[in-house]
Amino acid sequence: MKAVKLAVIYYSMTGINHQLAEWAANAGKSVGAEVRLLKVKELAPESVIEKNPAWKANTESTKDVQEAGSEDLEWADAIIFSVPTRFGNVASQMKQFIDLQGGLWAKGKLMNKVVSAMSSAQNPHGGQEATIHSLYTSMMHWGAIIVPPGYTDASIFKGGGNPYGTSVTQGQDGRMVEDVKEAVHHQAKRTVQVAQWIINGQNPE
Amino acid sequence: MKAVKLAVIYYSMTGINHQLAEWAANAGKSVGAEVRLLKVKELAPESVIEKNPAWKANTESTKDVQEAGSEDLEWADAIIFSVPTRFGNVASQMKQFIDLQGGLWAKGKLMNKVVSAMSSAQNPHGGQEATIHSLYTSMMHWGAIIVPPGYTDASIFKGGGNPYGTSVTQGQDGRMVEDVKEAVHHQAKRTVQVAQWIINGQNPE
Amino acid sequence: MKAVKLAVIYYSMTGINHQLAEWAANAGKSVGAEVRLLKVKELAPESVIEKNPAWKANTESTKDVQEAGSEDLEWADAIIFSVPTRFGNVASQMKQFIDLQGGLWAKGKLMNKVVSAMSSAQNPHGGQEATIHSLYTSMMHWGAIIVPPGYTDASIFKGGGNPYGTSVTQGQDGRMVEDVKEAVHHQAKRTVQVAQWIINGQNPE
Amino acid sequence: MKAVKLAVIYYSMTGINHQLAEWAANAGKSVGAEVRLLKVKELAPESVIEKNPAWKANTESTKDVQEAGSEDLEWADAIIFSVPTRFGNVASQMKQFIDLQGGLWAKGKLMNKVVSAMSSAQNPHGGQEATIHSLYTSMMHWGAIIVPPGYTDASIFKGGGNPYGTSVTQGQDGRMVEDVKEAVHHQAKRTVQVAQWIINGQNPE
């Protein structure tokens, strides 16, 4: 049985989506996947980041995380995205990363990736649903196999019940409001599970 | 190797989506799937249908097609939906069919279905994209594995290039404007293919 | 100054959306609108409703509410919809009501209505955003002027911060989880306000 | 009667959306609006643009168009966006422009803008609908008054019948496939018209 290659790709300003991504990466490893935890390139200038202590601290503490590239997408069997909302749509840093994959797409190298997505916002209904939908819309263009969590586990209800992907509210204090750790674990394990079925089905021993 | 069980479920007023569904059903059979071609229950009263010759003719010519029920969804490994747009969203006949599956959903019987969707409208940009998205949104609630065609085959470009699902424009004369037959064949075969991988992967011999 | 004619159109199974609609209607009256509070036609057979005490009770207590018809839409300057989610999309009862307006639409009688929408779900992220978006998509086909609340008032944050429209979670006990009354009041008043500006602007004294 | 202040904000790689924006700007002027035609900041490095003759030519021919800034949004009564799809969502250049308005948004300066949007793609169903929807979703966060064209004029049917906003297909030769000039004119005039009603209604003489 070939191990699933899982890329967990995130953008994070103050650490929430980095945390979601890390939980997903760990859950992926726990079920035998080969995992790459990857951030997308920042668009904001350093001078802006400097002025925001939480942003600065997160940028520094994650400076050793590799930046995602086309080769990671080509390598991956499964991809989990984690991205905060910006006005009900993916942050432009993530959008730029997606836009830059036109070359890979044109070569047909993005087909049949198993994809799932997570998000965060500053209000309980602040675009978490819409942001995940936007991500999946782009994935449809890539010919992805989309695996939203639905209501496939009790942890999802506990985490706020978002069937499109785990989402969390970032409180005024910068911390997560809902307890979504288990929901993230489930989502990541299910994504790897579906990818494993597909790999096994494509390559019977 | 277990055969994929494919349910092709459609609503059709004047025959377009019945045709799309039939093409999908035939393509499914051609790659070894067990197929059920099923229509959803009509909501319009007979007196209204009577007054519209095209609607009446289609109702009569498809009267022997079975009506879809919860047992068909439980049976299926893969589901292809075909539904015309009504103001940028699925026709209410299809929405009612979906709404009625709450019982099956609550029992966890709708998880992991491999799903793909098709649509039609009276204008080239008359809601084909939006309607397919609405269908997939509901499928995310069911815990489905969503398999839009993307740009995984040349036939998709020829058929109008809708990566979310095959869609067609119904002309003033009631006929299809674009030539989407091959795109439908590809979409159905790919849906069955992904379902086959998953079945094989779940049940290694 | 001509008064704004506001139609508040809802579907409600156990009373949540009836309550939202009533709050919206009252807020509309409080700012001088002429208001019609209207329910859409039920699709479920009586025998099904009978078996669900909460559904039955709500059906009985709202039996004197008028059913919405095309003439109400033609009459209205502004429309507020309130509809529970069913798998991330409007309940089929509401979808049927929308679908039936094809005749009015073809006559151009649905243009320039000022529209806003509200929703409810059983999980905090259970499709509230997606359902309101579906409604607005249909309204775009009607040529509506869409007035989502955005973050135009502090009450919106308090009610869960849904910028697309007020939404509420229905708890296990059947009651609303969030306190959205003020958010509904604001949304209704703003909808009437925008409609009033448009009426005044169209008909200078 | 105060003139409507209209900002037409676009991103264009090879000229299509610049052309749509220019048509909209001219139509706005023809009905008395004060108009600013504005492009958003490019994200691609010059070295990449240099290698693509069509991109380079468009960049040079539009080098005197002003870049949009927050002050333009604050100034405007109405905004028309024109942006190509990138994988079913707004190009990242436009997304970045939107994301950067957080400061203006927090001050409440983005409320009640009258907004409409246009798009283009390389396939007839290549994300035109989805891209315009994404833009409107962000506008809902801004508290905008959204004015999609619907089917409010015959020119819309002629241009492909996209009720969400005018959209066009870019052919292999780089040119527009559909004839959408009249549809753009109508959309821009209607947007200005609605904004004019609102201004007049807010400021009766």
From TrEMBL, chains A, B, C, D:
Gene3D superfamilies: 3.40.50.360. Keywords: Oxidoreductase. The keyword Oxidoreductase applies. One of its GO terms (molecular function) is FMN binding. GO terms for cellular component: membrane. It holds the Pfam family FMN_red. Its EC number is 1.6.5.2. Residues 6-192 form the Flavodoxin-like domain. PANTHER family: FLAVODOXIN-RELATED PROTEIN WRBA-RELATED, FLAVOPROTEIN-LIKE PROTEIN YCP4-RELATED. NCBIfam families: flav_wrbA, PRK03767.1. Belongs to the WrbA family. This is NAD(P)H:quinone oxidoreductase. The gene is wrbA.
